[in-house]
Structures are given as structure tokens and as C-alpha cells.
Write a structure and sequence with these properties.
alpha+beta, Thioredoxin-like_fold, DSBA-like thioredoxin domain protein
């Protein structure tokens, strides 16, 4: 599957490259309509976050009867399209009503992807999903910057691990992007200098992708059933079939 040692950093950065399409191997069981559940006082469900035992980041009502999980790549154009066209509705109509919880896990496709996956984890658990959303909402800008920095990125990947990921972020303009969203440059550098934490993300991506048959992004699971790569237009009816209506 995906190995950080073999990342062809620039060559792999096709803007719409998301891996192969993953055919669904499961179906969504039809469920009774689910009632809305109020969030804790002073909070919205989208702000209630936790790290799951498998390393995902879950937001929403932890007891929601409908559980949605996404494997997404932060350098995947289809994942960006899903966020740009559907995440606002997913958040407001499904997560914030307490009917659906949402867990995000990364499938890592290349070196920039790996650096981004570490940076969105560089704050508290409640920041991971919003920061990922910010990456996807600004997808074209980020990818254009990465494409323009090809020679610098290749040079960065030749550096020792303690310097490599910081140099990738610096060359591709990611440090100021995240600084404007609450991750200071010093904080980002510290996160990326911890090579073990960066490599752990890639290793988990490899292992889970193989175990769960995730061959493309965005791949979704509804109540544990792998429903394959979906757009918002095709995923929303599945949530409604499960009871979010």
C-alpha cells in the first residue's frame, strides 16, 4: 500500500489524484427515524470531539445511533469537493442535531499529504476536523503552492527525518497557512520535527487501508458498513435510509 520511504513527492501530486475507486462492499440497513438530541449546554455537537481507539477524530454526539466515518486524503480533489459541497449540510443537519457522529481518518497518498495530516493534529482534538475542512476549502491554493515548489520539496525529502517534514511544510507554504488558523510556526515546527509521530500516521494509514479495503478516497463507512467512495449527493440518501430523516 502506502510507504513513506517510496513517496514520489511531486510526481504524486496530481490535483485530482485520490487513488482508485473503491466499490462498496456493504449496504446501509434501513432504520427508523432518529430523534434529534440536544448538545450539552453552551456547546454545539460539532465542538464535542475525541480521539478514537483506532486513531480517528470523532465529532458529534458520541451516542449517536448513526455513525459515519470517512477515510480522506488531504491532497485528494474528490475529498475537497465533498467538503466544499456537503460538509456544511452534514454539520448543520446531521451532526449538530445529534443524529449522526462523524469520524475522520487519513489515508496518506504522498509526502505533502503526510505533512498536512500531522499539522491538522498539531492542536487539541476538537481542531482536527475543522483544520482538515480548512485544507479542503482552500485546496486549489495549497496544491498550487505545492506544485510550484517541486525542486525544494525533492531536496527536503533528502534531509534527515528530524528536518525533512519541517522543510516540506516550509517549501510548500504550509507554515503561514496554519499560523493564520491557530497553529503557530514554532508549534508546527515542533510537531513536524517529531518524526516518529509523523511516521505513525503513515503506518496507521497503510495498516487500516489494507485491513478495511480502503482503496480510494473519500471512502465512507455508515454504521460500520463500507459503502465505498461517495459524493455528498450519493451519501446523504444513505444517512437518511439509516434513519437521519
Amino acid at each position: 500500500m502506502l510507504r513513506t520511504a517510496s513517496f514520489a513527492l511531486v510526481a504524486a501530486l496530481a490535483l485530482a489524484s485520490c487513488g482508485s475507486n473503491n466499490a462498496a462492499d456493504g449496504e446501509v440497513a434501513e432504520g427508523a427515524p432518529v430523534a434529534a438530541v440536544a448538545a450539552p449546554t453552551g456547546q454545539a455537537w460539532i465542538d464535542v470531539a475525541s480521539v478514537t481507539p483506532d486513531g480517528g477524530y470523532m465529532v458529534g454526539n458520541p451516542d449517536a445511533p448513526i455513525k459515519l466515518m470517512e477515510y480522506g486524503s488531504l491532497t485528494c480533489g474528490a475529498c475537497a469537493n465533498f467538503t466544499q459541497t456537503g460538509f456544511e449540510t452534514l454539520r448543520d443537519k446531521y451532526i449538530n442535531t445529534g443524529k449522526v457522529s462523524f469520524e475522520l481518518r487519513n489515508q496518506v497518498h504522498n509526502g505533502i499529504d503526510l505533512v498536512l495530516a500531522r499539522l491538522v493534529r498539531c492542536s487539541t482534538p476538537d481542531a482536527m476536523v475543522p483544520l482538515s475542512e480548512q485544507v479542503w476549502m482552500n485546496f486549489d491554493t495549497i496544491m498550487t503552492g505545492a506544485q510550484a515548489a517541486g525542486p525544494q520539496l525533492e531536496a527536503a525529502m533528502a534531509l534527515p527525518e528530524s528536518q525533512r517534514f519541517v522543510a516540506v511544510a516550509q517549501a510548500s507554504g504550509l507554515l503561514p497557512f496554519f499560523a493564520s488558523r491557530g497553529i503557530s510556526e514554532d508549534q508546527a515546527r515542533t510537531c513536524l520535527a517529531d518524526a516518529k509521530s509523523v511516521e505513525a500516521i503513515a503506518e496507521r494509514s497503510d495498516k487500516q487501508s489494507e485491513e478495511l479495503n480502503v482503496t480510494g478516497t473519500p471512502t465512507f463507512f455508515v454504521n460500520g458498513s463500507n459503502v465505498g467512495t461517495q459524493s455528498w449527493e450519493t451519501l446523504e440518501p444513505m444517512l437518511q435510509r439509516a434513519g437521519a430523516r
